[in-house]
Every structure is written in structure tokens, then in C-alpha cells.
Structure prediction request, 300 residues.
Amino acid sequence: MSDARRPLGRGLSALLGEANRDVPVRGKSDGDSSSGDRSIQLLPIARVAPHPDQPRRHFDESALDELAESIRARGVIQPIIVRAKPGERYQIVAGERRWRAAQKAQLHEIPAIVRDFSEGETLEIALVENIQREDLNPIEEAQAYRRLIAQFQHSQEGLARIVGKSRSHVANLMRLLDLPGEVQDLVMAGRLSMGHGRALIGAPNSIALANDIAAKDLSVRETERLVRVARDGGESSRGEKAAPSGSRDPDLVAMEQHLSDLLGLKVGISHEGGKGSLTLQYSSLEQLDMICQKLTGGGF
Prediction:
């Protein structure tokens, strides 16, 4: 890919922002709304297909039904983004969930913006959109990172800049792919979190441990303790050494790690005498933009 490729974290927001400004006036024909690359077109829904390597693999059917009901009442408010394919067909770049819901709502056409994206840009935009909307589970996100690194020679640091996350977040997610498939399935199903998965990497009998943790709904801290016991050969936790005097509260450390996993940023918590501070460290303007978007609910 060209070195001139722009970072997409902020570019995606601008792209989708254009969509909201360009919604055609009710009653206009397709011809009236196709007067430029940035205009919205009404495309036959049967000619639109998802990308075969879309990062998101799992769609909540009940959530799709709710969106379909909204589309029946109000239409598709935000256009999908597509790229043209041979034979007057189109491939989804962003918005597969809206396309699926529109099918459930039995629409024959869907509003779309047609863009000329390369294969690499298509995958990057799909990844960024899903991450910004928090639509990917940790395994799907890790698989998408691995695909982008393998196929388009991104470094972990370069990927982190693209998606507005820290390099350590990208690295930690990709380590989840070292877990056995059965454990990855539990993470994908939402029965285990990213924190659970990280604690289980390299653990003895990790599949049995993972099933036990999911069945008992253990916390990440409890999981870490269980893994330590398993690595010590099954010795009772009573044999664990007491925490040295002056060490940090393990609950605060666990909370920092949990927030770091959720945000993809380094998080620090200082607490003393019933009050304290929480700090978020960013290393790029894209990460700062992501923080502002989350804090303001997308209204920044």
C-alpha cells in the first residue's frame, strides 16, 4: 500500500459525517442523488453483498430484529458505505449490520455512498468502524489485526495508530490467539472477557480451567488466583506469600487493567483517603479523539 495512506481513525468519522449531511430530499429520484462521488445513491439491496473478510462474524439476532423494526418505521437513517464491483454489484465497506436489518425489514433498496477503496483500505475501514462502535468481540478484533499485519505488512505500532489504540492493546489482543480454540470460543461467546483470556494464556489445563471459570462466573482476579494455583502444582492458596507492606491494592491494579483492556489505553488510578484520580494516557491525536468521543457519547 502507498505510504501516503491516511490514518483512518479520524477519517472514518469525517466519512460518516458526510453521509448525514448528504441525505437526499424525500421524493428525489436515484438520478437526482447521484451527482458526485460523495452523494447518496439508492442501490438495489440484492446487488449489495458483505465483504468475505469482514472482521465481525457474529450478529445478535434480537438486536437485528430491533433495528429492522426501527427501519420499517423510519427507514435507513445512515447510509452504508460500499465500493463498486464488476457487473453493477457492490461490496459493503461499512454498515453490514444496517444492510442485514434492511433485508429483515424487506426493503428493496438501501441508501449508500459509493467509494473507490482498495482492498487494504476496505479492511481497515471495516475494522475501525466496528472498533469505534464496539461491535467486535476480542477474538474477532485480534483476528482482524493479524490479517492486516499478515496481508498488508502493518506493524503493531502502525495498526495502533490506525485504530486509535495503544500498541500494548494490540499486542495483548493478538496474544489471545495463542489460546486453545475452545477457550477462544468462550471469549467470542462473551462467557469470558479479554481479561479472563489473558490470565489463561499458557496456563496448564487451560480448557478445563476456562470451562470452570465460565460455569462459576469467576472474576478476572479470581481467575488469576486460580491460574497461579494451577501453575504451582495445585497447592492451596494458603501457601501464597502475603503481599509486601506498602504494595498497591490488588483490586485497584485489577481495575486499572480492566479499564485498560476496554479502552486500549494505559490507565492509572490513584486512591487514598477515600478520594483520588484516574488518568488516561494517549500517544496520538487519534487516541485523544477516541477518548473525547467516548466521554461525550459521540457528540464531541
Observations:
- The chain has a mean pLDDT of 77.
- The beta strands are 40-44, 48-49, 80-85, 89-94, 109-114, 266-272, 275-281.
- DSSP finds 13 helices and seven strands in the chain.
- The CA atoms of residues 100 and 109 lie 12 Å apart.
